[in-house]
């Protein structure tokens, strides 16, 4: 096959990209292959037969492609050919497809299924079984105790041992479907309509005209509505209609559902929070302090990367400090207003910030004169870019997951954790729900208290929101009575 990879026995190396190597398991790695391999005809001197072989190239153009490796250390030819095909089509990243195929082949291996054998009953075909497996992962597979009951966290919620985002599950199924389309198109598998890996469904959708395009109101608009026009994504258009191809398997996945604002927020559990704080010492001091500002003071990523040096001083007591931050005030890039707002900082955190500010390391960076008044500087004396801290956080999260695989929080969820625990402290100390939410809204620098209300759901959404609503009704009634009086 012209342009194919040279499939040979592949010896395992210690460096494995597709997860930690396990005996008798599939994994994926990367190989260096020729971008434009060529073949040549050679004649066997003994038999006179002509043979085809890959031609040698003194200066080949190499590309890095993903390859799937089976438990015996051999390249899975059909899957690796597909990944090579995608790379040749200049697809930037084939890693997500490689992960999907890795999961699929591991699934087949575990159930002793063959990728090219499709029984008569749909529910026994590997593609349909894999789709059901992905749906189970999307729903979440709970971790079980020895007695068979689900384990629970500190809040009484079941601990999920395996979980897959709905979008990830759908994308992996789409990758497997595209893989089978390639196998059929290239002749790796030959099937008939009675044993297809899935059923193709055509959906006809009306074409919506977009304002500002040549199609609308153009004297030659009939040219843009050609019959049976193929689109770049493979769909076809007829006059006023567009045909989109899908499968019965994808139709079985639940639709993406809009979430309440609080559903997207996940504060750390007490044990996860303790782990985060305990291991933070492994990071450089300036990055420790950045993440502590997120966790202990509720700052956003953009706020602690532009945090001003000018607000730092040595505290004289143990009282919490409220500092003013904002673009107009001291250049700190708060999210909403240019005036910014107040951020609460404990005396302990302020002292640690002060010690960093007067450290010999920080003073040397200060001399480079590139800080623009920012507190946290890289080794080049420049303020940190947000991407740099995002990368550090991602690496730190992977480290924490090596200790506890269930630790999985985004950098913005440092702020969610701050808000949740701060609200709980205020309510536990006897503060009314309405006053607690108003104070938290100021600490979070929210323009609308509705943005703060979403954090109430972690405590008890019905009690807190009802209490706040009753308080606002009382204020309205008092105002109306004063007006009538």
Structure description:
The protein is an alpha+beta fold and 485 residues long. The protein has helices spanning 77-88, 95-110, 126-139, 166-186, 248-251, 270-279, 285-297, 301-305, 327-330, 347-357, 360-366, 386-403, 413-428, 433-444, 449-453, 457-484; strands spanning 27-34, 39-43, 50-54, 62-69, 141-142, 160-162, 200-206, 229-230, 236-238, 241-247, 321-325, 341-345. The strands form 5 sheets. The chain has a 4-stranded antiparallel beta sheet. The chain has a two-stranded antiparallel ribbon with strand order 1-4. A two-stranded antiparallel ribbon has the order 2-3. The longest helix has 28 residues, at 457-484.
Question: Can you give keywords for this protein?
Answer:
12 strands, hpI Integrase, Chain A, extended, 485 residues
Summarize the structure.
The chain is an alpha+beta fold and 485 residues long. 40% of the residues lie in helices and 12% in strands.
Topology of helices and strands:
Layout: E1 27-34, E2 39-43, E3 50-54, E4 62-69, H1 77-88, H2 95-110, H3 126-139, E5 141-142, E6 160-162, H4 166-186, E7 200-206, E8 229-230, E9 236-238, E10 241-247, H5 248-251, H6 270-279, H7 285-297, H8 301-305, E11 321-325, H9 327-330, E12 341-345, H10 347-357, H11 360-366, H12 386-403, H13 413-428, H14 433-444, H15 449-453, H16 457-484
Antiparallel strand pairs: 1-4, 2-3, 5-6, 7-10, 8-9, 9-10, 11-12
How much of the sequence is in beta strands? 5-15%
Uncertain residue segments: 1-21, 209-227, 459-466
Overall residue-averaged pLDDT value: 77
For the record, the CATH architecture of the domain at 265-307 and 362-485 stands as: Orthogonal Bundle
Please estimate the helix content. Answer: 40-55%
> Any idea of the CATH class of the domain at 265-307 and 362-485?
Mainly Alpha
- Count of DSSP helices? 16
> In angstroms, what separates the terminal alpha carbons?
92 Å
Largest sheet: 4 strands, antiparallel
Using the coordinates shown, work out and report the CATH topology of the domain at 265-307 and 362-485. hpI Integrase, Chain A
Cross-sheet strand order for the largest sheet? 7-10-9-8
Instruction: Give the topology string: H per helix, E per strand.
Output: EEEEHHHEEHEEEEHHHHEHEHHHHHHH
**What is the rounded Rg?**
30 Å
Number of strands: 12
**SS-based structural class?**
alpha+beta
- Sum up the overall morphology in one term: extended
């Amino acid at each position: 096959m012209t342009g194919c990879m040279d499939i040979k026995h592949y010896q395992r190396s210690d460096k494995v990209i597709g997860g930690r190597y396990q005996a008798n398991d599939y994994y994926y790695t990367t190989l260096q292959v020729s971008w434009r391999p060529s073949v040549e005809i050679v004649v066997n001197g003994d038999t006179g037969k002509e043979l085809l072989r890959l031609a040698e190239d003194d200066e080949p153009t190499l590309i890095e492609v993903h390859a799937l490796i089976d438990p015996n250390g051999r390249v899975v030819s059909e899957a690796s050919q597909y990944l090579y095909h995608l790379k040749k089509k200049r697809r930037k990243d084939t890693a997500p497809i490689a992960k999907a195929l890795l999961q699929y082949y591991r699934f087949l291996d575990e159930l002793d299924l063959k990728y090219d054998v499709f029984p008569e009953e749909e529910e026994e075909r590997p593609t349909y079984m894999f789709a059901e497996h992905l749906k189970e992962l999307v729903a979440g597979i709970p971790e079980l105790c020895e007695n068979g009951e689900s384990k629970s966290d500190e809040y009484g919620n079941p601990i999920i041992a395996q979980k897959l985002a709905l979008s990830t599950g759908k994308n992996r199924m789409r990758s497997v479907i595209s893989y089978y389309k390639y196998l059929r198109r290239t002749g790796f598998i030959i099937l008939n309509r009675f044993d297809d890996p899935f059923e193709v469904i055509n959906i006809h959708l009306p074409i919506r005209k977009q304002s500002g395009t040549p199609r609308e109101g153009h004297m030659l608009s009939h040219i843009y509505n050609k019959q049976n026009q193929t689109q770049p994504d493979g769909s076809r258009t007829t006059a006023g209609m567009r045909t989109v191809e899908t499968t019965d398997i994808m139709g079985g996945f639940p639709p993406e559902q809009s979430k309440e604002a609080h559903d997207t927020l996940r504060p750390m559990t007490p044990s996860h929070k303790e782990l985060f704080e305990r291991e933070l010492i492994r990071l450089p001091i300036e990055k420790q302090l950045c993440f502590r500002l997120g966790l202990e003071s509720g700052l956003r990523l953009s706020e602690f990367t532009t945090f001003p040096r000018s607000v730092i001083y040595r505290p004289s007591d143990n009282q919490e400090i409220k500092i003013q931050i904002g673009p107009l005030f001291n250049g700190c890039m708060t999210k909403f207003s240019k005036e910014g707002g107040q951020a609460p900082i404990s005396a302990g955190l302020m002292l640690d910030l002060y010690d960093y500010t007067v450290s010999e390391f920080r003073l040397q960076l200060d001399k480079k004169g590139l800080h623009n008044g920012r507190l946290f500087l890289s080794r080049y004396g420049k303020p940190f870019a947000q991407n740099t801290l995002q990368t550090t956080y991602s690496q730190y999260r992977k480290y924490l997951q090596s200790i506890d695989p269930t630790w999985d929080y985004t950098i913005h969820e440092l702020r969610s954790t701050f808000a949740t625990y701060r609200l709980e402290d205020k309510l536990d100390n006897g503060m009314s729900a309405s006053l607690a939410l108003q104070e938290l809204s100021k600490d979070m620098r929210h323009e609308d208290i509705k943005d703060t209300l979403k954090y109430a759901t972690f405590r008890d959404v019905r009690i807190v929101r009802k209490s706040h609503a009753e308080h606002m009704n009382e204020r309205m009634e008092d105002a109306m009575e004063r007006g009538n009086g």
